Amino acid sequence: MDSGCALWAPLPSTLRCRQTRRCCCRITRVIGTVGSADRARLATDLGIDDIVDYKKDNVATRILSLTANRGVDIVVDMDFSSTTHLVSQNAVAEHGAVVCYGSNVRGQIPIDFGAWLFKSIRLHFFLIYDLAPGERLSAVEGLSQLLESGRLVHNIGPRYTLDEIADAHEAVERGSVAGNVVLDCARRLHNE
What we know:
- By secondary structure, the chain is α/β, with parallel strands linked by helices.
- Helices cover about 35% and strands about 25% of the residues.
- The chain folds into 2 domains: about 5-150, 3-Layer(aba) Sandwich (Rossmann fold); about 155-190, no CATH class.
- It is globular, with a radius of gyration of 18 Å.
């Protein structure tokens, strides 16, 4: 894709995307979905161009408004069950793609086949834990290059010692942490 608009749903709070969206995918505009004002502020800080609050806004309507009724070129979402309707609501552009790496519903998920077929929508599923060896090597090499060059930056959240492991787990479970929670095992060893 040489240019285009992507929807990240939900916004990946662990990566800064201001530079990475352009170097990784050649995406010129990113719309991120969030569920709180705190996440909206983080999204702005991370360089997301437009924010949609999925708890307050009709996501498809907002996407159409933001894209002059064209829709986004790609949707990257963890939850396939909440994404399928975006195609039939015209929020995904013709010849667009939907990339999902999970779903809150494990059983059958209906899709509007006609909407997907006649818009030539591509669908791609993957599990990061189950990449083929060549895919994993390519991903690791690509990510390593981006990290080394500074074009990809991790958004590090709070750090906990090994003694605070229960607190770290609770922070992740609450869903209130923006970024990766780090368990600093070395810090505990040095303090003993």
